[in-house]
Structure formats: C-alpha cells, structure tokens
Request: fold
Amino acid sequence: MKCKLKRQSLLKNLSLVESISSSRSTIPVLSNILIKANGENVTFTSSNLETSMLVKDEGNIEEEGAIAVNGRKLLSIVRELPEDDIFLATDENFRLEIKSTSEKIKAKFIISGLPETDYPDIKLDPDGEFVPINAEEFKKSIKKVIFAISTDENKYSLTGVFIEKYQGKLHMVGTDGKRLSLIVKSFEGFNTSEELFLIPQEGIIVPRLVLQEVLKIPSEHETIDVSFSQNQIFFSFGNIRLVSNLLEGRFPDYKKIIPPERERYFIADKETLFNGIKRVSLLVDESYNQVKFSLTSGRLVISSRNPALGGAVEEIPVEYSGEDIDIAFNYIFLLDSLKSIDSERVIVEFEDSEKVVTLRGEGEKDYINLIMPMKINI
Reply:
C-alpha cells in the first residue's frame, strides 16, 4: 500500500475510529484499526465486535493494499506532524511507514502491523433499507436521556437507551434505577414516518458507546440514515458507517413508574435553582453527594453538610404554597436533569419525602425526569 492523505482529514478520521478500537475487547487484533487503500478511497475500520465503524477518506493512491495497526500510536504520530500531507506505505513484513511530505520535517515512523486476513469480517451494511432522519433532532433527543443510563455493567439492560414506538410516537428512555429520563417525539419531528421507521415492535436497547459516537456527528450533516435488524442498529452519515449490536435483556416497564400529575409542586427559575444547587454542592459529603431541599411557603432553602469541612445554605424564591417539607437528593442527578431542560422555569412535583419526584420544564409535556429522593442525613 502506498497513499498520500490530507493531514487534517486523516487526523479527524483516526480520532473517530480509534475511540472504538480503544474500547475494551478480548481479541488483541481489535486494538488495531484496519487501513485499506482501494480505488480512489482509503478506509479506516475499527471494531470491538459489539460496535464497529468505517470511515472513508479520499486519497492519492499509488498502490492498493491493507494493514491493521495500533490506532492509538498512529493517531499520536499524526498529531505531532505538521499540516502538510502525510504519506503512508506498507512493506512485505506488514510494517507501516508514516512520513510527512513537508520539506522541513524529515522524520519517518515505522509501526509493526498485521495482515488484513487477521482482522475479522465486519458487517456494516444492513439487510433492509436505510431511513433518513433529522440528525440534529435525533442528537438532541439522545442528549436528553443518555445521562440517566447506568454505568454499572451488572445492570446490563440499563446501560443503553430504550427506544420504542408507542401510541404513534417514538419514546426514548434512560434509567439507572435511581433516576429516569423520558422524551416522547413525533415521527414528523425527525422528518420521517412511523411506517418507514421500522424499529422492532417490542423496542430496542441501544448501547451508550454507539450513541456517544452519533453525538459526535458534525453539525453540517443535516440527516442521518438509520436501519434496524432484530439485534443490530446501523447508522450512515457522510463518509461514516456505524453499526452496533443491541443490548439483550428486558427493559423495565417504565410506564408503570411514571406518576400522574400531582397536586404538590413548586415552580422555580431554572437558572437560579441550578446555580443554587451548584454552589451548595461545593460542601457536600462526597460519600453521599446529598443536598436537602427545605420547602416553605414562597421559598426553598438548599443546604449541604460535610462533617470534615462544614456546610452551606442558600435560599431562593419559588412558587409554593403547600405544607413545609424536607426532601434530600443526589445533587448530581438534579444538575443533570436541569441541564437537559430547555424551559426557563422548572416544575418539581412530589408526593412526600420518600416517593419519586418529577422534574419537567414549564410547557415541556413530552419530556420528564424522575429522581428518587434519598434518606435525609443532613
């Protein structure tokens, strides 16, 4: 293989695929990326057998060929080279030579690699058709739920976002068992239709990693093509193909968890509430990350306590006329939820200090956050 590539394009594409190859894999060859020069294009492929990506780049190809090399090392080398084009070449011993075409920089790097035949075959094309959807709206919906999913691998089915059709709309849900986020979108909002969006009827669980990659889609891509199978999801946008296995297991029946609108609630300015929680959280006990809400008529007192350092108290005005009550929360859950709400005012509904609390933006009926209170230890 011999080819010349634009350094900036190579750097961007290597950064994309390396994030997949650097993720955990039990197969050593998958710590590498497969580089293949063929025709007028150079492709970069990475996989951890659960999530795979192919990125296509235009290059000046003198000789076709392929090699699998350590993506992290190659990326580190390219980062240090000047802006001039970069020349890549392989030899018969499966070594990759990397050189800048700069007349000032004469450095040459050699990386040992593996033949293409050592790299597993990766399925990147779906059996069915791709459906174009609005990329920006899809990314916005992902951001509104992805923060709530679990990072605990023992809660396997909770480590992804659940997506299903329900009553003519698309539901996207994230939960870790202590909090839950749900957004409901019309198919028209994604510039598609229910008939075209052929998601399996029982719903799917999409892993965090593939959704994080979708969020990296540059803003110039107005649409993203999506396709589904019973156990995989496929994305295509621009020069990128992305495919992931779906998570197995049964997602909790989230509809049973969501309470109806309740009579006890307070309304607050979102920014004022967010900043108050953030300031008070500077002195939380990091074993619990707990802040306490003390509600009385017309005001909310937010407090924290740290046995080793002290504590903090802040009072903010709210719209509330019910009985006095104290409720404790993990402050991180509160901040995550507030950041995802678009409205300037937030409605916080509750029943008592032990049952699930609902946060929603004023006027945002199709997006809600649920948070389980904590036992008060302040």
Q: What stands out?
A: The chain has six helices and 25 strands.
